[in-house]
Specification:
The chain is an alpha/beta fold. It has three domains: 3-352, TIM Barrel; 360-570, Rossmann fold, CATH 3.40.50.880; 583-661, no CATH class. It is built from 13 helices and 28 strands.
């Protein structure tokens, strides 16, 4: 059994401590340290061997011990104290961001094509300029690999069977790298001289992780191991995280909503790795903002939401913290973590032995080598739509199993590989439904690859923004007026297809010489030759990039048209139809029982830079519409819910509601 199944309440304890800071660990008390975690219901702590400053926190012969640690074995003291309380202690070490080695061995750094050092002067939020940038070491350099291997062997020799696992951080190449001699040699060896950065980086990471995962398995066979190498997912499983999954014992999804990730990043990532057959955890933080935010504490409601949704999706949890230099944990941080982790612990029996039961699959639209910001918005938009409409979903790539799904969504820019084409063809032939938008469905050559669907195209819309004129029988409210779609779409030929929404062009394209009013040109009277939404047997096609549109602009017409198409294809969501969009529903199955998690937390943009969740929201007055055989639900640890002709009357509680429907799946 993977330890995440039994030790799923983790703290990822940073200790990036400058060599210019004196008195390191001067107030550290191992017993008090371990007791703080135990009191906060933490059962796993990632502790530091080496930090981004390149400082080791044990007596080392292969690197540099922190000069103010006085050769103290802080790492060993932490492991011993944590183990004495039954708390796991996987070891953190860094790979690329390592200031000491970068200063001592500048030839090991990553280089740009023009021969300068790769890097930037941004904070880890990737947007704020600040002094003190991390230097990027080149993990392809053979001498650096030897140095890293010596570090691992030293740890294994020193701590042996006491090592629970390894967390290897920052296995990444800067976007402007890597053009050193070792980088060029790798490119030539792999045939990647002209490859896009994402393809080159993915292969470099794959080779490195395979080599060092094998070393870890040889040195410490029972240790877990994970390489934090960026959350890059693609529809083509040959690239990104999926390509190196054999080198991981488990997955960790780093996603701090108050950092640059935002609240929509986690669900799209978690809903992909949760289907890969390995244990996984969500990594958020206790910080108000970002890693290294000393003194920053987020509201309890925010941390509840971040941890509860990971647990509801079948994942473990890890909350990021940073140990202050003198070695005493932040009391406010552990009051917060304990308040949330005690609730996670209490709910563990509810989730034990349960599995996800997604109804809808969403194919990842990211393409290695193409800009990922637009496709990432499409991905987040598709997941958000499903969550708001209460369709439980899973993210897919071309290695995913489509069995058990009723419908597959191909959002905006999904590029069809040979493997994906075969799977989608088989899925459709066996009665599956498809919902496709914009450029999704074309292959790498730009040719339509879903030849089993009768769709034909004629370039892009002549003028935009365009307008939707919906048929009343498709969506009554949308049909009341022409609704704008801001982004430019495709022209789909309507022959042989049912038109659900006509497209109306503006009178003219807005230019400096010809324009109307403040924003887009209004719609003309007649409809265009090319419609906006068409349907055929068991499929609906949107000619516009509706998922990116919704994530970028919040255009409700795009969301509501999509929802009407979903209801046409698979009916209303089985669990949650009619609930507010702010309530998320997570169904799972345990034996014959149906488990439902309802969460009601609302991120608010009350600050200019981040969304904040300060309060739990109530379920009072709402009705959960469920099938008739699901109306004997019981609140976990409580009473049965009252029912009416519509479904389950939800109690006046706030934040999270756990419901057990016994024998729902019984024949």
């Amino acid at each position: 059994m993977n330890p995440l199944s039994t030790h799923g309440r983790q703290v990822h304890l940073d200790f990036h401590t400058s060599p210019h800071i004196p008195g390191v660990a001067s107030d550290f008390d191992a017993e008090a340290f371990a007791q703080t975690f135990a009191d906060a219901r933490v059962n796993s702590v990632t502790v530091f061997a080496k930090c981004h400053h390149g400082m080791c926190y044990y007596p080392t012969q292969t690197g540099t011990t922190h000069p103010h640690l006085n050769q103290r074995d802080l790492l060993g003291e932490q492991i011993e104290a944590l183990h004495s309380r039954g708390i796991r202690a996987p070891i953190y070490t860094t790979i690329v961001w390592e200031e000491d080695a970068a200063a001592r061995f500048p030839a090991w750094r990553q280089f740009t094509k023009n021969g300068t050092f790769a890097g930037d002067a941004l904070a880890t939020d990737l947007k704020t300029p600040q002094p003190g940038k991390w230097k990027w070491l080149n993990f392809l350099h053979p001498d650096y690999q030897d140095y890293f291997e010596a570090h691992l062997r030293e740890l294994a020799a020193r701590y042996g069977s006491e090592i629970d696992g390894f967390f290897f951080d920052i296995l990444m190449l800067h976007p402007s790298a890597e053009w050193s001699e070792s980088g060029l040699a790798f490119r030539r060896q792999q045939g990647l001289m002209d490859a896009p950065h994402a393809v080159f980086q993915s292969r470099a990471q794959q080779v490195f992780t395979a080599k060092f995962a094998a070393l870890v398995r040889d040195l410490v066979p029972n240790a877990t191991h994970f390489f934090n190498s960026g959350v890059h997912f693609y529809g083509d499983s040959r690239f990104g995280v999926r390509a190196r999954q054999d080198s991981y014992s488990h997955f960790e999804v780093e996603s701090l909503p108050s950092g640059f990730w935002g609240y929509d990043h986690f669900p799209r990532s978690a809903r992909l790795v949760m289907d890969w057959g390995k244990e996984w955890l969500s990594m958020t933080g206790r910080f108000q903002k970002q890693w290294g935010d000393f003194g920053g504490i987020k509201p309890q409601a925010a941390l509840e939401y971040e941890c509860f949704r990971a647990q509801a999706l079948g994942g473990a949890n890890s909350v990021g913290d940073q140990l202050p230099p003198r070695g005493v944990l932040d009391a406010a941080a552990y009051k917060l973590i304990g308040a949330v982790y005690s609730q996670l612990e209490a709910a563990e029996p509810f989730y034990a032995g349960s599995v996800a039961i997604p109804q809808v699959g969403i194919v990842c639209p990211n393409v290695a080598g193409e800009e990922e910001a637009p496709s990432g918005k499409s991905e987040e938009g598709a997941v958000r739509m499903c969550e708001e409409a209460h369709y439980d979903c899973v993210m897919l790539d071309d290695a995913s199993d489509l069995s058990g799904l009723e419908l597959v969504i191909l959002p905006d820019s999904v590029q069809i590989t040979t493997a994906l084409q075969a799977k989608l063809s088989g899925f459709y032939a066996n009665g599956g439904k498809l919902l496709i938008s914009y450029r999704a469905g074309f292959d790498a050559r730009g040719e339509w690859a879903l030849d089993f669907l009768p769709l034909d195209f004629a370039g892009e819309a002549e003028k935009w923004p365009t307008f939707w004129r919906a048929k009343a029988e498709f969506e009554a409210n949308l049909s009341l007026s022409d609704r704008v779609h801001y982004a430019r779409g495709f022209n789909v030929v309507p022959e042989g297809l049912e038109i659900l929404v006509e497209r109306v062009l503006p009178y003219f394209q807005r230019t400096d010489a010809r324009f109307c009013s403040h924003f887009q040109t209004p719609p003309q009277a007649e409809t265009d030759a090319f419609p906006a939404v068409v349907a055929g047997e068991r499929f609906v096609y949107f000619a516009d990039p509706i998922f990116r549109e919704y994530r970028q602009t919040g255009n409700l017409a795009a969301r509501d048209g999509w929802r009407a198409a979903m209801q046409r294809l698979v009916g209303a969501a089985p669990f949650g139809e009619g609930l507010p969009t702010t309530i998320t529903v997570y169904p799972r199955r345990r034996g014959d029982d149906l488990l439902l998690t309802l969460l009601h937390y609302i991120p608010v943009r009350k600050a200019l830079d981040i969304d904040v969740i300060e309060e739990r929201s109530s379920f009072g007055g709402e009705t959960l519409r469920v099938p008739a055989n699901a109306r004997n639900a019981r609140v976990f640890g409580g009473d049965e819910l009252q029912t009416d002709e519509m479904g389950l009357a939800l109690p006046n509680v706030k934040g999270r509601l756990l419901l057990d429907v016994p024998n729902y799946f019984a024949a």
